[in-house]
User: What shape does this take?
Amino acid sequence: MTDRLFIFDTTLRDGEQVPGCQLNTVEKIQVAKALEQLGVDVIEAGFPVSSPGDFNSVIEISKAVTWPVVCALTRAVKKDIDVAVDALQYAKHKRIHTGIGTSDYHIKYKFNSTRDEIIERGVEAVKYAKKFVEDVEFYCEDAGRTDNEYLARVVEAVITAGATVVNIPDTTGYCLPQEYFEKIKYLKENVSNIDKAIISTHCHNDLGMATANTFNGVMAGARQVEVTINGIGERAGNTSLEEIAMILKCHKGLGIDTNINTTKIYPVSRMVSSLMNMPVQPNKAIVGRNAFAHSSGIHQDGVLKNVQTYEIINPKDVGIDDSSIVLTARSGRAALKYRLNANGVDVDEEKLDSIYKKFLQLADQKKEVTDADVLMIAGADTAASHAVKLDFLQVTTGKGVVSVASIGLDISDQKFEAAASGNGPVDAAIKALKKIITKKMTLKEFTIQAISKGSDDVGKVHMQVEYDGSIYYGFGANTDIVTASVEAYIDCINKFKKK
Ligand code: KIV
Ligand code: ZN
Assistant: This one.
């Protein structure tokens, strides 16, 4: 008999907190539906009191998915719980995730409180949430650095108050795997009513031990894991869903099963990476570009003789189709659609037509169009609906000459042009742009990244621009890095225009 492990996905809450990874509601619905297809049990859809955007996303995700539990985060504060209840009104299965910091660091410095008072506040929050929903999860923030005896008192009290799941986060990613194992074991053995609730893990990756800690938590008796796609999340990230799902699939002998359809892992990973503009490191376990690439001669020889010599996972099991169709200027719409779908992007015929036109332009510049390029084109397609668009950009630059740029913008169907010189091509182009859009904007961060390899490759630019006291994140991708930079700047402008 196998034991069931519940998968609680927090890509849209803990993952989405990462600067630059913010999604709009339409994109969040797209991810939530993909998570439902993937088979996650719980989707943490947001922190409704934190912003109207989060509130609205929880409402819309609740309407969009059917069988997973939709969960909303709150602090142990009545107002937060009221707003979460409101946001969850359309959820078919709903959960409130409330909690408070329990380590002495949090009690003393965050709350200026006492251990007893923190228990009272936690109990009160659970009792209040129980008036509205049956399923209440309680998190003991910084449980990783909370002493086990006190943690057991908190957990016992909130279960008595009605908590159905108790979450033991290693919020700072501090715990050693053995220590985390002992913590969960201690709770199993010392909390008298522990059989009335499910223990959940929630591990951060600051020391690169999130997956090891989560796995050890499960070995000690936790039956829910809180994870994200590609391991995205605060700072060094959270435990990645794909790693836990594949550990349990590869080690069937452990007798622990999840509901994850692992063949959907790769498309969802691509979708999240592309929508959040967050590249996956090439050597990332399960979903990295090199995860199934055998490069050394000895390994290739072994794999050709018998794939099991160096491969513990069949790439097909995680949705990587090794017979991938290579796209070139001669590829048709069907091949493009196939690659888009394989990368988790659904398109109707109209959108396919417009993406196909851009694909042909890129295919004329590059020998081979990669998956990353295809995702970039699909992402850029959404920019077509923006109020401010780049019409043209011409830059003269080189060694020993002053860089000069002339730019044309289309702003709500009106054409504007300007020229400027600057300290390098990007500076000249942005100065020219600022002659048309004269708002007081300050460039705060500027990162350029090549997508894969080759001098004809697409470059990605991430930017942060400050305007009117707020920071806006922009993204651009183009084979020409100056154009990508200007597009990223324009992406920021379109965001504050929307506000
Ligand atoms: O890391 C953490 O402690 C959290 C809680 C809010 C669950 O994300
Ligand atoms: Zn967290």
In short: The mean pLDDT is 90. The longest strand covers residues 441-450.
